[in-house]
Design brief:
Length: 291
């Protein structure tokens, strides 16, 4: 059995990203998307989600490089005090800084749980049937983040979560120096995969067998996509993607993914892609079908 969930991240980030996500679902192979509770275009994304009843919508929990739902005094260990002001609080921008504080146990599990629950409930209050959760920059691969996130999601009635670990044969980076650093990063944390599976299972959650596309984020083209589908393993897997239009808002944001979003949008909406999946015996499903 080979099943594939195609999940578009960053829903709600900008109007251009929203258009790309919806188009890649209506005219392409995207089956699920994760919505950012404090994205600039959150309200528009909610409206789009209500208009696309086949799109499975989850919560893209943001704990780094973004804006919290709760105020700084509710979640002080998550806030970048240098970047925040009286009007607005911000998370730390750099994943490396966040990871260092995780390893030093300077992030409060209670703060992570509270902010995660607040983000999920904001979606639910807007009428979104939250099907699953994942995290911006895959921060839930760290056990110290995962455990309170599972508690928060469970308390909100959400029992599906992204498996942020990717099988990564060396062949995928052969002749592609731009992927070497990303490959090394994924290998460095791969030892956490077993603990992830145990925590998810003990918490009564469901997760795919793993994720495809993390290493090639920002580099996902036709050749790499075809290679992954031709080598598709048995089981249920998630493909992480970032379709969108590179609008003025996106250019002004901190994301490194700009023009690549339009390239992914074109890829995901090509009619030949469905034929490729069918030829390889891959069934498209959404997170709602997982369980």
């Amino acid at each position: 059995m080979r099943r594939l969930i195609v999940n578009a991240d960053d829903f709600g980030l900008t109007a251009g990203v929203n258009r790309g996500v919806l188009e890649s679902h209506m005219s392409g192979i995207v089956t699920s998307a994760t919505l950012m509770a404090t994205g600039r275009a959150f309200e528009e994304a909610v409206q789009m989600a209500h208009s696309a009843d086949r799109l499975s919508v989850g919560c893209h929990v943001v704990l780094v490089d973004g804006i919290p739902v709760l105020g700084r005094y509710r979640i002080p260990t998550l806030i970048d005090s240098r970047a925040s002001n009286r009007e607005q609080s911000f998370f730390r921008k750099r994943v490396s800084n966040f990871a260092a504080r995780v390893l030093l146990k300077r992030l409060s599990a209670k703060d992570i749980e509270a902010e995660t629950a607040a983000q999920i409930r904001k979606l639910q209050s807007a009428g979104i049937d939250v099907s699953h959760v994942d995290t911006h920059k895959h921060t839930h691969l760290w056990p110290h983040v995962l455990r309170p996130l599972l508690t928060a999601a469970g308390s909100c009635g959400v029992r599906r979560i992204r498996n942020p670990f990717e099988p990564a044969p060396l062949r995928i980076i052969a002749g592609r120096p731009g992927l070497w650093r990303r490959y090394a990063q994924t290998r460095a944390v791969s030892g956490l995969a077993q603990e992830f599976q145990r925590s998810v299972r003990e918490s009564g959650f469901t997760t795919p067998d793993g994720t495809l596309g993390i290493i090639v984020t920002g580099k996902l083209g036709d050749g790499l996509f075809r290679w992954m589908m031709d080598k598709f393993p048995e089981g249920t897997w998630e493909l992480v993607c970032h379709p969108g239009y590179c609008d003025t808002e996106l250019v002004g944001s901190l994301t490194r993914l700009r023009e690549s979003r339009e390239e992914e949008l074109q890829l995901l909406t090509r009619p030949a892609i469905r034929d490729l999946l069918k030829r390889n015996g891959i069934e498209l499903i959404s997170y709602r079908d997982l369980g």
